[in-house]
Amino acid sequence: MILKFLEIGMISIYFFFCLLMNSWTQLFFLRFIQLLVKVIVVMKLYDLEFLTVSCLCHQAMSYAKLAGLEPIYGLYSGFVPIFIYVIFGSSRQLAIGPVALVSLLVSNVLSGIADSSDALYTELAILLALMVGILECIMGLLRLGWLIRFISHSVISGFTTASAIVIGLSQAKYFLGYEIDRSSEIVPIIKSIISGADEFSWPPFVMGSIILAILQSMKYLGKSRKHLRFLQAMGPLTAVVLGTTFVKIYHPSSITLVGDIPQGLPSFSIPKSFQYAKSLIPTAFLITGVAILESVGIAKALAAKNGYELDSNQELFGLGVANIFGSFFSAYPTTGSFSRSAVNHESGAKTGLSGIVTGTIMGCALLFLTPLFEYIPQCALAAIVISAVISLVDYEEAIFLWRVDKKDFLLWTITFTTTLFLGIEIGVLIGVGVSLAFVIHESANPHIAVLGRLPGTTVYRNVQQYPEAYTYNGIVIVRIDAPIYFANISYIKDRLREYEVVVDKSMRRGPEVERIYFVILEMAPVTYIDSSAVQALKDLHHEYKSRDIQIAISNPNRGVLLTLSKAGVVELIGKEWYFVRVHDAVQVCLQHVQGLKEAPKASDPSPEEKPSFFQRLLKQRGEDLSVSELESGNKKPSDSKQTDPQLEPLLFRKS
Known about the structure:
Elements (H helix, E strand, L loop, with lengths): L1 H17 L4 H23 L6 H15 L4 H7 L2 H9 L7 E2 L2 H11 L8 H23 L11 H18 L1 H5 L9 H10 L6 H23 L5 H21 L26 H30 L5 H16 L7 E2 L1 H9 L6 H21 L4 H13 L4 H10 L1 H17 L1 H21 L3 E6 L6 E3 L8 E2 L2 E6 L8 H13 L6 E2 L8 E5 L8 H16 L3 E5 L3 H9 L2 H5 L4 E2 L2 H16 L15 H7 L7 H6 L23
Parallel strand pairs: 5-7, 6-8, 8-9, 9-10
Antiparallel strand pairs: 1-2, 3-4, 3-6
Helix pairs in contact: 1-2, 2-16, 3-4, 3-12, 3-16, 3-17, 5-14, 5-16, 6-13, 7-13, 7-14, 8-17, 8-18, 8-19, 11-12, 11-17, 12-17, 13-14, 13-15, 18-19, 19-20
């Protein structure tokens, strides 16, 4: 049904344009229509539909204008890189080409170096594509894509929302009919709009508003009704056809047109102006980061939906090679597009053939259709850009973060505000900086929990999460929920000292003693311990030993245990104080607490004769008391030979 609709639509367009074109152009246009019909049949065989092709041409020209370039460079950027990505990329649905955010970044950095009408401006945009491609290839080959994981989703959402607003306002000049200042900050743009209000022209405003309303209506219908999903992709083509038709019939002088566009494929050329490369490095890094976030993110999501694995590093390498080759054919930086990739997926694309078809038709457009693009109104292209970026305004994410996590909402607000008022580069740097500060703070201040025993079980859980859990007198059980390393060991030591002093006796059982004698460290969540933490653990052991406190360690993983053994901590603390379970450590400690409580009090030996805590432990080592007896505080010693095998330590002392 959709194929018939497209065929009828293209034939109708052909007959309409036959009235407007000369015989030579009619001949080529007829051949192009025939080619499209054949391509549709081929795509149907591969379970594809003709949806993304109409998107790319007009969006590419719109985004090129946003970047401050001539529309032809948008078409060039949607031609060669597509074929290269199909070869080196790994996603089967990702549609690459010019995108709004990258175009704004290009415009923002290059406008400070050269005027958009100068040839140097275009040369720098092409050079930037080469630099971005090299960076992406290096990161892909060195498998450095994981670095971008440190950027919070809140930063990405705030950044894209603010950027979308700036992009939309930057297109206002085509609606209002007069020039406004080019800037990545909202204040200069608004000032420029207000100051030039006396030059307002209503024809482009009315046309642009009508086209924007049509685009939004088609997008809504395409998303809300499955059988009309092709409307979402046909929106840009509809906008261009309507705008061009109106201009061709009425010839309004107040509406600016795209103008003459060179015909033919791009020629091979080496990027120039390498003396400006140093000033472009920060923007190249920023665009590379956007490529990782946008392209790899959507590619992974589409791979998961279609049931295949995607290598993010290969994806990054494929994008890099596409940009490098594209720079040799007059392309500016390209990356994956959310909207076009989503349409590609909904159209049923299963292989890279969709990219080849898109690139082929883009080549045909460059060869035969560029004369038709001359009459496209600028306000129609601006409406396409605004319609595309409206979906990037993610206010729902801000509401969600406010409801779920105030810290992430603060991060979103900081990134959004700084990007909007201070510019894209500063906004990204501040957002990433604050995001990394949050990561460092969480790492340097890990979660530490005091554990208690759940009634009727041998399970120990956080006493704050489970208020019914009880602890034992003279024993504190601490779980460290993070790797232990130089940045957080001081915080961990401070918390352990705090737990030693602050004792909640309301939910305690067992023999009554006045202070803490045992600290049990539950180390199951500890995945790594470094040399600084090992040295700090030794110092903590000596500090505890001076106050007659014994450390016991429960369930360390193999790597942590190996590190402790190599550092001599196992021998220092004693192999008998390493346990498989927290419950085993608690039972052994309870036996010693009971023995300490019942030590003879008849005679008060002098300080020189008074045995140390560790000597008393050694003396009481043979006693074995049941858990229930120790919980109640009643001593009923049993035969020391009947030792519960479950109380055996994790490691054994050498005989």
